[in-house]
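dumping this here before i forget
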Amino acid sequence: MDNNLTDQQQAEVVKKWLKDNGLSILAFIAIGIGGTLGMQSFQNSQLKKAENASRLFSEIEFSVKQQRLSQAQTLLQEMDNNFANTPYQDQSHFAMAKLYMDSVDYDNAIVQLEFLLENSSDDSMKHIARLRISRILVEQSKLTEAMALLLSVDEISQSYQPKYESIKGDIYSLQGETEDAQMAYEKALEMMTPGNFEYDFVKMKASEMGTNDDTETADES
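structure:
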């Protein structure tokens, strides 16, 4: 503001400026206050939603542990309706898949896992679902389908690569392709950390493939 203006002139300038811009100022203030309150309301709403989803998931877990299939199915439907695209939905379908697997209902277990493949936004969840489906298919002796599923993914994060190779080794082994099985197991071992059960188990299977190769060579001689 011009310091050479008298107090009266300065007051007139302020009045005119407020007259010309007052509505805009009030609008900005209202937007600022409304935005803050809106953000708080949104955050409270999201927190409440997460709490409800967590509670519902706990009920699903309890139903699964108690082998209450009908109740678990009803609760899962509620989860899908009200809390889609949340981590709780993913975990709920994994829990339901486990319930079906424990009941040796492999087909319905696959349905739950395929839901995750199609709907989960988490790559890790998709890898876990794909690996579990492939193991079920191996259990069902559907080896070609299992291998096709493992090969259907283009990018595999390093933490899951040994798991893929290990199952490939199992498939090759069951198909009688011992050399390919051993190569898959050894590839898995290269990416695993020694000193745990999973590593030792894969190493044992790789050693068995080597023993089988030696036996076949001796038989051919």
